[in-house]
Design goal:
Layout: H1 3-12, H2 19-31, E1 35-39, H3 45-56, E2 59-64, H4 71-74, E3 76-78, H5 80-92, E4 106-108, H6 110-116, E5 121-126, H7 133-145, E6 147-150, E7 154-157, E8 163-168, H8 176-180, E9 183-187, H9 192-202, H10 208-222, H11 232-247, H12 252-258, H13 267-275, H14 277-280
Parallel strand pairs: 1-8, 1-9, 2-5, 5-8
Antiparallel strand pairs: 3-4, 6-7
Helix pairs in contact: 9-10, 9-11, 11-12
Length: 282
């Protein structure tokens, strides 16, 4: 798949990547490098993994990172309750216990699951910045060889290396060692033309003038001193909510005002936006 075909397939999935992001995705696929995406919340970092899974016809495997995440929760665990039931059942029948460290008692976690996908997977490591630095260091080993050693069973190696997408909201700085192993790209907020295309693709039937009014209002809102600037995801949800209200008879400006809670998610920000509502919406 060349770059033009990739761009077309992504547009068919309603993902409108700019030239920089498209180049980063294409090179990551071509070179087999993990793709590290940073940017403000709501700019489409997570969504790109779902889109790639559909474009490539692969299974999406998601690892949601959080503070305290360890290797066992990300790799595999043994199903101890199932093992115990097996032991008790064998004792009750006076039968041979057998091997309780068999694959039948293994619980796949995302990293192991991504290796065992026969057709390859798209592995999303979401919000890696929320995990501890120790887990980040562990992840380096996984990304270098795409294999896992299970002491009781042996080494599991990927038959087909997964496509790896890592996302970060920059709540902390990532280690240089991780960045060196990845192809890095910062996703900025979109320009007005691209955001209108995104809104119209995700809210079928919205009129051009309504989409333009909404995108202009979002752009002006982002220029205010907000604690949480709205991203593309909030723009789309605001458009859906306003369109639903407009379908019941509200004018578009009234619908935008009533659905403002889909765009602004903080009390202080809401008060600030209400103070500029005429400037934003009219």
């Amino acid at each position: 798949m060349n770059e033009a075909e990739l761009a077309q397939r992504m547009r068919e999935e309603r993902y409108f990547a700019d030239e920089g992001l498209l180049t980063a995705v294409y090179l990551a696929l071509t070179l087999g490098r993990p793709l590290l995406l940073e940017g403000e919340p709501g700019v489409g970092k997570t969504e790109i993994a779902s889109v790639l899974a559909r474009v490539l016809g692969r299974e999406l495997v998601r690892l949601q990172c959080y503070e305290g995440l360890d290797a066992g929760q990300a790799l595999y665990e043994w199903d101890y309750p199932k093992q115990l039931l097996h032991l008790r059942a064998a004792e009750a029948r006076n039968a041979d216990v057998g091997d309780v460290y068999d694959a039948a008692f293994l619980l796949e976690r995302p990293l192991l699951k991504s290796l065992r996908c026969a057709e390859g997977a798209v592995l999303l490591v979401d919000e890696i910045d929320r995990a501890d630095s120790e887990f980040e260091a562990f992840l380096l080993e996984f990304l270098s060889d795409f294999q896992i050693t299970i002491p009781e069973l042996g080494t599991v190696t990927a038959a087909k290396a997964p496509v790896v997408v890592l996302t970060s909201n920059r709540t902390r700085e990532l280690h240089d060692a991780l960045k060196r192993r990845c192809l890095y790209h910062w996703i900025p907020l979109p320009d007005a033309e691209r955001e209108r295309a995104i809104v119209r693709a995700h809210v079928p039937g919205i009129e051009e003038e309504a989409a333009e009014t909404l995108v202009r209002a979002v752009s002006r809102a982002r220029q205010l001193d907000l604690l949480k600037r709205p991203g593309i995801a909030e723009s789309v949800e605001w458009a859906r909510g306003a369109a639903a209200l407009a379908d019941t008879g509200d004018s578009w400006p009234v619908a935008l005002r009533r659905a403002l809670g889909l765009l602004i998610k903080d009390e202080q920000d809401m008060a600030l936006v209400h103070g500029h509502i005429e400037e934003l919406i009219g």
